[in-house]
Amino acid sequence: MKIYDITPVPKPRQTRADKWKTRPAVMRYRAFCDEARLRKINLPESGAHITFVMPMPPSWSKKKREQFDGKPHKSKPDCDNMLKALMDALFDDDSGIWDCRITKLWGEKGQIIIRENG
């Protein structure tokens, strides 16, 4: 199991103008991609269980934080867009990845946890 202390972000819907514009969502995505490459995140072609740990908002009370810590993250962003962002950051061509499982949880800090089966 590998734990990467990096806050996951979804892949934004981009336009041609995003090549020169600096929309916040696109800039967060680009920074995430750079960080993922820097940390040399390794994703096997099959059997991976990827857990995206989403950080809880600082505005939440201590009671609410304790209640949600480690529980399923059932709101946006969608887990498929998070996987898409990770795979696009790591691979020029991600067609070789043919099997993986995705989980999205609440946590104190953003993390990506990759477990390999086998």
Automatic annotation (TrEMBL):
Pfam families noted in UniProt: RusA
Coiled-coil ranges (or none): none
InterPro entries to which the protein is assigned, alphabetical: Endonuclease_RusA-like, RusA-like_sf
Top-level division of the source organism's lineage: Bacteria
GO molecular function: magnesium ion binding
Gene Ontology biological-process entries: DNA recombination; DNA repair
UniProt protein name: Endodeoxyribonuclease
